[in-house]
Write a structure and sequence with these properties.
disordered N terminus; six-stranded parallel sheet; 19 helices; homodimer; about 600 residues; 28 strands; about 35% helix; alpha+beta; nicotinate phosphoribosyltransferase; six-stranded antiparallel sheet; 3 domains
């Protein structure tokens, strides 16, 4: 398996060794042959990779998958074995010179500009731009789209779940078993972490990407025990090693009897009073505690949460407490999670009070069982006491919308702009090699994304001449938005107004296809979105691929930076994507030029 | 990358080398440690792998993924590197002996029974039964569920698309770019083929599994051309090599002019009459035809299907025809596919008639563009002329339901039956090591699936003593359902009735959880569902893993064998899953035994 990270001499291959130049659609090879046959294979093409609509009814998408794309590009070469297979597959009439051409292929003449991984992105804006020989760029289409589509979709889904759950909750990705195949699972773990999850259950992903791992035991563990009698080694030394409890199971059973006759029972907290808890469950919990006295977290719903799981858990936790250990908590995997978590919390708090066990009331409550954005939202509305959510199926399969429509469109060839028309206006491509900018407003929020032609003057904004101007002395800090604050806390625009300076140039932002939708924007700050991630022969500096943790932090920061109304789960305010006036005119000139004209008779 | 197929000395590893024993949930390791610490790790456990509900609102599921499971099991061993990572991950308090235990682990003591891959299966019936040391069986849980969940889901989805499209249509899987990661795509290609698709666009899957490959060119190919002038090499020799057309492009342009003034135009077949077709499109088509004169299939919707794509295609196809080549057809990727395919067909037929080109009217029409069960059904209702469907997103992401809920439940340990209770009855597990049978009725359709205890007498059915009975002479054939026909075409049950024989024993089939639902069945034929795919130390014969093509044929046969009302897309008749009377009684005895009893005061 390819190791993660970078080799001394270059960039390692994709995480999944199955990602080879053959992981593409057959038509990329038939086209490559046709290009080659027409001596057109080295025509210089520019392709934009973008999506047309945000997923999940939202107004944002997290861009993910770039690192794997660059790893593919850096190692893009056909093996003899692969070439032999292509030869076998194409018609026998295809000339041998083509296979020599394939033999010589790599991405040294390809240039990749991309938005950085973890950025919040919007429809139509190129996420990645591929420039290079048209045949090579086409061969890259399918794997690039594959590597970005699911990555961005599931990272966005993770971000959405984080948004509903709130910052304070621990979010655990538990989806491996339901994911679409092995690296559906591995990808899910990587990109959910990027989108704001805290940990995964997937050990392979933990090893590959350094993601924190979480997990305790399943229902099967509980039901694999028959009774406490089968535990032969019942002794447990105390946390400080000072003494040994010879019969830990007996100690837990004693606590269970005590719980039965306390005021907890009388106060009817257990929603009906428990009589006999399930003894195989008690045995399983005891066994797990004996193995992990410092990490005791029990799944309490194998038989009956309130009548068996919780009392059994508390008996073990109290027995652990007697030995100086602190139990971690419980996991609920069925039933009414709002109700059960509140009941459990009350029970824990009552124990804290009744038996004077410090922090027993703060016991961690983890919930799982088919959670998604809706159920998290419903739990919030009902009120709950859950500290951590384990989310699987809905998260990793992107149940609410399992596909993102990333496309890869030719926008220029041999310096000639190209357009793809469609009866559906939303499917018309935006031609030309372009630049994209994010324009920020006074409040520090992104206002609009703007595409311009490659050679248009970039939008101007107020760059304060720090070193020459007298206000320099009053400067206090520069915040993440590039806004300047002075000592009295007022922002630079106010100062700029005070000094009669303008914050930025007025820029006309136009909807690419709707002539009536346009707005003037005076940006407070402008950020160019694409950077060079693979310079080819351009001589540009290659942007480094940062570690996953850095991408994750960037992603979380960018999500927090968005204006809250764009982030709403339901009916969010549309985030605007625009083109410059010049580009608008050019699109529509080209459109008229390419569309066939009918004749009425 | 692991090669596919079998090595001399055993079974190769999983197709995706990322499928290792580490591709599992962390809790499998924490449980393994707790079992080991309690000296319980070698307790003999039986786990059933099954799902609870058919996907897509249907009444059937195709079982897929078994081969990859067996490949994992056959090669299940931890590397030192993996053990080091587990040690790093578990608490430092874990004893070193556990890692020695992991070092010694393999699946030589595990026994796997499974339904054969490609079978039509139903909820609750074990698809796979794992017997072995409890700790090992648990470690297998996550990867087995992962490998079967998506495989079965997408194979079922493919079968459903085939059912709506009909047997005569060519179905092409085009989903790689939208699949959930690289082997989401590779898995999709494998299992869609298994479920009845004819080919894929995914070259890597073609190489790995020998699936037929299909594909021609994209919109980008079309828009990469500017005009016919850029084609420098315009000559094409005739199909029989007897002469050369020096200007193939000119020949196509001449045909285009001819098409403009014919009665085809006058008859207004082009839905408005075409004037100038898009010349860059004509150039692209010409170029593709020059590269693949025997395989000319053109994507006709880059600019305008009726005003440009179809006339341009026909001009090229007619020019090819002049040289003795036969064009393959067109692909439509947008717009009203029903209408456009019918218009295109009419146009082709008119050309056949007008210019006397044989079979021009039978030109292949492929359609793609976000197809799914509903759109296929709608196309059928509207009437269309499509011969082949290219299906991507909805097929491979299982858009209509992106997850199958395969679970893995402990049903026995140390010969003691175990049950998992739940407030949701559908989540209660069916305890005991079991056998499953499919009972067939008179018409040859499966009637009901039946689970019994492992040691119950198998259900009896009429096995005709062929070699001794006088009707032997009248026997004509044995059909796929095991029904016997005599020379006059009447089925054995009639004969059996005639001779006063009974077709089978009356068997009481009970719903596992609903006491009022039960039925007597007199099966015509009984098939035991699970076979031994990994004998462990049992000495049983290991069922061979057949090639993909054989599984595919089996799958198609099994799907055809189902009673049509179970296969309906909407509101299908439920297919019954039952337990024997004995097993029913036992389930309910155990249930009462395990459920905690409350006390009312």
């Amino acid at each position: 398996m390819a190791a993660n990270g970078q080799r001394k001499e270059g960039i390692d291959g994709p995480t999944n060794p199955m990602v080879t130049p053959l992981l593409t659609d057959l038509y990329q090879f038939t086209m490559a042959y046709a290009y080659w046959k027409a001596a057109k294979h080295n025509d210089r093409a520019v392709f934009d990779l973008y999506f047309r609509r945000n997923p999940f009814g939202g107004e944002y998408t997290v861009f993910a998958g770039l690192e794997e794309c660059i790893k593919l590009i850096a190692n893009f070469r056909f093996s003899e074995d692969e070439i032999a297979f292509i030869k076998e597959t194409l018609p026998t009439s295809c000339e041998d010179g083509f296979y020599d051409y394939l033999r010589s292929l790599d991405c040294s003449d390809v240039e990749i500009h991309a938005i950085s991984e973890g950025f919040v992105v919007s429809p139509k804006i190129p996420l990645l731009r591929v420039e290079g020989p048209v045949a090579v760029a086409q061969l890259l289409e399918t794997p690039l789209v594959n590597l970005i589509n699911y990555a961005s979709l599931v990272a966005t889904n993770a971000a959405r779940h984080r948004f509903v759950a709130g910052k304070s909750k621990l979010l655990l990705e538990f989806g491996l078993r339901r994911a679409h195949g092995p690296d559906g699972g591995i990808g899910a773990s990587k990109y959910c972490y990027m989108g704001g999850f805290d940990a995964t259950s997937n050990v392979a992903a933990g090893k590959l990407f350094g993601i924190p791992l979480r997990g305790t035991h399943s229902h099967a563990f509980v039901s694999s025990f028959m009774s406490p009698d089968e535990i032969t080694e019942k002794s447990l030394h105390s946390s400080d090693g000072s003494h040994v409890c010879e019969d830990f199971v007996g100690s837990a059973q004693a606590w269970l009897s005590k719980l039965k006759v306390t005021s907890i029972q009388r106060s009817n907290l257990l929603g009906g009073i428990f009589a006999e808890t399930n003894q195989s469950e008690l045995a399983a919990f005891a066994s797990y505690a004996l193995a992990f006295p410092n990490n005791f977290l029990a799944l309490v719903d194998t038989y009956d949460v309130m009548r068996s799981g919780i009392p059994n858990f508390c008996a073990i936790a109290l027995a652990l407490h007697d030995l100086g250990y602190k139990a971690v908590g419980i996991r609920l995997d069925s039933g009414d999670l709002a109700y059960l978590s509140c009941e459990a919390r009350n029970f824990f708090k009552t124990i804290e009070k009744e038996f004077g066990v410090p922090d027993f009331g703060k016991m961690n409550i983890t919930a799982s069982n088919d959670l998604n954005e809706e159920t998290l939202d419903a739990l919030n509305k009902q009120g709950h006491e859950v500290d951590a959510f384990g989310i699987g199926t809905h998260l990793v399969t992107c149940y609410a919308q399992p596909a993102l429509g990333v496309v890869f469109k030719l926008v220029e060839i041999n310096n000639q702009p190209r357009i793809k028309l469609s009866e559906d206006v939303s499917k018309v491509s935006i031609p030309c090699k372009k630049r994209s900018y994010r324009l920020y407003g006074k409040e520090g929020y992104p206002l609009v994304d703007l595409m311009t032609g490659e050679n248009e003057t970039p939008p101007k904004y107020y760059k304060f001449p720090l070193s020459f101007h007298p206000i320099q002395l009053m400067l206090h800090k520069v915040d993440v938005y590039g806004s300047l604050y002075c000592l009295n806390g007022c922002k630079l625009p106010d100062l700029a107004a005070y000094f009669g300076l303008q914050a930025g140039e007025r820029i006309l932002c136009r909807h690419p296809f709707n002539e009536s939708k346009r707005a003037y924007v005076v940006p407070q700050h402008v950020e160019e979105l694409m950077k060079c991630y693979w310079p080819g022969r351009s001589g540009k500096v290659r942007e480094e691929l940062p570690p996953l943790k850095v991408i994750r932090e960037r992603c979380i920061k960018h999500l927090e930076q968005m204006r809250p109304d764009h982030m709403r789960r339901l009916n969010p305010t549309p985030y605007k994507v625009s083109v410059s006036a010049k580009l608008y005119d050019f699109i529509h000139f080209l459109w008229l030029n390419e569309a066939p004209v009918g004749e009425l008779q």
